[in-house]
């Protein structure tokens, strides 16, 4: 393939961008300022898998069979459009443009996510005090926080894949927020309920679920 024979023969200029999309969406990876002096170019996935090669002189496009019916290439802007994205499309995409005496490389790190679901927010009272333990769960993440009366710890955790879970106080509510770069959902419980959890107040069940989805 074109890229394997001449990749290391020229100097290069590099740019990079992060791109986030949902499963089933499309994405256009594009050059902001296409270069008129472009001779040839290659789109590559994860450093070694060619998506396509383009020879400008002959207007010849060599598209990998793995991407047929899923890819559109614009030979004026050199943009690449990927359709019906799946999570295994996540990775590094590079367009390597060969100029007369140099090459220009633009990199896109694409991350494809499923939309998040509403988190589960539960709380459990300590029978001997006004302390309450809140637990928020979403996807493979879980965080716990302690509350006394209407004062609660705020916490947050983020996975290496960009999924985040947080417990925070907003106005008169505890909010459990579950998010990733393309979506978010929340579940809330009113702080007022904790005023009635002390032993001297009205007794209610020690283990409760309150789901008020957005």
Automatic annotation (TrEMBL):
SUPFAM superfamilies: Immunoglobulin
Domain of life, source organism: Eukaryota
Name of a matching Pfam family: V-set
Location within or outside the cell: Membrane
Keywords: Glycoprotein, Membrane, Signal
Immunoglobulin V-set domain segment(s): 19-97
InterPro entries: CD2/SLAM_rcpt, Ig-like_dom_sf, Ig-like_fold, Ig_V-set
Classification via Gene3D superfamilies: Immunoglobulins (2.60.40.10)
GO CC, one annotated term: membrane
Protein name: Immunoglobulin V-set domain-containing protein
């Amino acid at each position: 393939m074109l890229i394997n024979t001449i990749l290391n023969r020229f100097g290069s200029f590099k740019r990079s961008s992060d791109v986030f999309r949902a499963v089933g969406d499309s994405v256009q990876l594009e050059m902001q300022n296409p270069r008129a002096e472009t001779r040839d170019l290659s789109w590559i996935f994860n450093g070694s898998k060619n998506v396509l090669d383009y020879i400008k002189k002959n207007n010849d496009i060599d598209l990998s069979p793995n991407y047929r019916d899923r890819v559109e290439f614009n030979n004026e802007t050199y943009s690449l459009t990927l359709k019906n994205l799946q999570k295994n499309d996540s990775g590094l995409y590079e367009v390597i443009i060969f100029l007369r005496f140099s090459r220009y490389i633009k990199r896109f790190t694409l991350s494809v996510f499923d939309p998040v679901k509403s988190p589960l927010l539960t709380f459990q009272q300590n029978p001997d005090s006004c302390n309450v333990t809140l637990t928020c769960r979403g996807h493979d993440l879980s965080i716990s926080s302690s509350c006394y009366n209407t004062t609660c710890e705020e916490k947050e955790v983020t996975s290496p894949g960009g999924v985040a879970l947080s417990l925070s106080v907003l106005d008169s509510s505890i909010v459990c927020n579950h998010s990733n770069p393309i979506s978010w959902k929340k579940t809330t419980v009113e702080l007022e309920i904790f005023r009635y959890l002390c032993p001297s107040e009205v007794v209610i069940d020690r283990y409760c679920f309150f789901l008020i989805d957005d």
